[in-house]
């Protein structure tokens, strides 16, 4: 490094100190496949097997040779990287390739339009913005048609072709009224005031408890973790968090939030009140397999309930496949096996092949508002380099009739079997192992009553997983981290370049760690 020890540390020093406290302050000098290398004191390389996998961005491994070779080719050829506001045939090709894969898996006949962005949270922000724009347009159209209906009723009452029965007034809580122009005006004022109040309600988002959808202004309000979310509550629309696997809970929340718009119609010469669903609930956003929430796959029953209730109230479903997608679970989309059909999909992480920063929002054609393209953009989005890298990633995933997906599924089964054998041998230490493909989690039993005071203290602070991660790194050169919102669960999200040796390496590291925990820390964890 060119920075001397006397210089102040100005790049997020607080985070560095937190990492150091668990012995996680490692520096890596090279990366290849499933391995990161540290520099040893003798100048040699020390390999670390990587189960954090870039938090999901490295399904194809660090510096995948096919991707780095292609990147060099692109740079040598001088492809335009920043040519905003010009035609991007490679982006059109990427959108078509994504459509072919998504439609093959979901069986959905409708096309999806693609809006490109840079990060996962940004793609979700775009989804939120698009859904809100669409909601505003639908709300405006409803109010307009109600307005024309009211004008027509006024005309019909004026020319005597319709009368207003008293029950119309009582129904709206206005008390009995004599029919007449003044009474009709009062009725219409009441309806307009009701509709105006409905239209002014802020949008409501729904998302399962445990969700993680990013840390930007609107997406952090859809991220369940209170530490991330609550300091910024005032900045954006709020979500209702739906408990997992409590049949009926979603419907109850929807019934609490939904609203109606009122109108008037004439039927057989009589004025009647009409009611329509007001689009208050902007979107339901979910991860088919929750990542940061502790590697939890949604149940097919919950997915079915979500689809039914959302269809009933006309709420679009945003499927966040940022961590679970791109083949990690053995399908391109983790929602495929759950029978999930989204109106929006977001993809990021492994879409950039571990080299480019790219994310994409896919929007069902029948929901798509083309004006969005004119009011949402980023300097860096849809750049010529990232688009082409993403196309290469899709080509690699789809090669040999989807060999990469099969590899992710098969490696995942083997890894899960190993985690399961550790759980079976240490049931008093390991509470659960779960996940699908190369998106696996191992949850420890609560250690807040552990015999070793520093361990108990860390566990009470929600940091036990970080102590274990520090031990795995320092004692075993295994890199992993707890999931961000469920710190008692370790994540295992390696690349499809994972080898048998890597799996055996992890197994012995986990067995040693579980042995220490079961032994009441008589033998200590390797901490700084
Ligand atoms: N959604 C999910 C499901 C994620 O796992 C993440 C990142 N952990 C994000 C969104 C946010 O992505 P990014 O970090 O690229 O903003």
Automatic annotation (TrEMBL):
UniProt keywords, alphabetically: Aminotransferase, Pyridoxal phosphate, Transferase
An annotated Gene Ontology molecular function: transaminase activity
Matches recorded under InterPro entries: Aminotrans_3 (IPR005814), Class-III_PLP-dep_AT (IPR050103), PyrdxlP-dep_Trfase (IPR015424), PyrdxlP-dep_Trfase_major (IPR015421), PyrdxlP-dep_Trfase_small (IPR015422)
Gene3D superfamilies listed in its UniProt record: Aspartate Aminotransferase, domain 1 (3.90.1150.10), Type I PLP-dependent aspartate aminotransferase-like (Major domain) (3.40.640.10)
Keyword Hydrolase: no
Essential cofactor(s): pyridoxal 5'-phosphate
Family, similarity comment: Belongs to the class-III pyridoxal-phosphate-dependent aminotransferase family.
Protein name: Aminotransferase class III-fold pyridoxal phosphate-dependent enzyme
Organism: Streptomyces luteolifulvus
